[in-house]
Amino acid sequence: MSRPALRAVDTAEPVAPAPAPKAEVIALTPKPKSAGLDWLKTRAVAVATAVIPPLLTLALILLVWEILCARPGATLPSPSQVWRDASDLILDPFFVNGSQDIGLGWRVLTSLQRVAIGYGLAAIVGIAVGTIVGQSTWAMRGLDPIFQVLRTVPPLAWLPISLAAFRDANPSAIFVIFITAIWPILINTSVGIRNIPQDYRNVAAVLRLNQIEFFWKIMLPSAAPYIFTGLRIGVGLAWLAIVAAEMLTGGVGIGFFIWDAWNSSKLSDIIIALVYIGSVGFILDRLIAGLATIVTRGTAAN
C-alpha cells in the first residue's frame, strides 16, 4: 500500500494585511491678520511713542510753572493766568479789528512771507556760490576768509546798513534774513562739494559728462546731505532773525507784536506769541528735514 504524498509545508509566517490608510485630517487654521491692520497698529505705536513723552514733559513743566507763579508776589503770570488774559489769541488767531489789531495767525503769516523771500534767495545764492567755492581751489582761497569774517557779524548789526540802503522796513528785514541764512547754506554746500569721492569724478570723466551734467548727476546728489544740513540751520536762523528785525522795524509781524505787548505790559500776550514762534520754527525745521529724507533717501540726518 503506497504512502500518501507528503505536502509541501510553507514555513513562512503569515503576512499581516496592510492597515487601511487613515483619513487625513486637515486642521482649519485661522486666516492671517490683515497687513493693513498690522501697519495701523505699528503706526499707532510709533505715534504714541513720539507724542506721549513730550506731552508728559509739557504737563510737568506747566505744573511746576503753575506752582511757582501762582503764589502772591510772582513777577510772571501762571499758565492759568495766561489763559484767562490771552485765550482769545489762541481760540481766534485770525481776527481782524483794524490795521494793527489783528490776530497772531495773520502776524505769523506776514513774518513767514518775509522769511520765504529772504530764505529762498539765501538758498539759491548759497548753493550756487557754495558750489563754486567747493569746486574751485582759487575761489575757496579768495572767498573763504571773507565769508568767515562776514558770518560772525550779528544779524541785527546789518539792520542799519539795510535801512540806509533800501529806505524801507520790509526789504530791510528781508535783507537781514538773507544775510543771516546764507552762511550755513554756503559753507555746508562747499564742504559737501569738496567731499565728493574721487571715484565719482573719475566716472564722470570716463563718461565725458559736461559741467551741467556733472552738476546735476554727480555734485548735487553727493552733496545733498550737506546742503540740507545747511538749509535746516539756515531756516532756523532766518526765523530768529525776522523776529528780532521786526522788533525794530515795526509793521504787523510777530516780532513787532512782542515789542508792542512789552510796552503795554501784556506779559500773557508775549508768552502766547513765544508759543506761536516756537511752534512755527519747529514746523519749518520738520518740513526741511522731511524734504531732505525724500531727496537724499534717508542719508541726511534728522
Brief rundown of the structure:
The protein is mostly helical and 302 residues long. The protein is built from 10 helices and no strands.
Describe the protein's topology:
Elements: H1 35-69, H2 79-91, H3 104-135, H4 137-150, H5 159-166, H6 169-194, H7 198-207, H8 211-249, H9 254-263, H10 267-296
Give keywords.
single chain, 302 residues, mainly alpha, MetI-like fold, 10 helices, 72% helix, 0% strand, globular
Explain how this protein is built:
This protein is an all-alpha fold and 302 residues long. The chain has a domain of 191 residues: Orthogonal Bundle (MetI-like fold), CATH 1.10.3720. It is built from ten helices and no strands. Helix 3 runs parallel beside helix 6, helix 3 packs antiparallel against helix 8 and helix 5 packs across helix 6. 26% of the residues are buried. The N terminus is likely disordered.
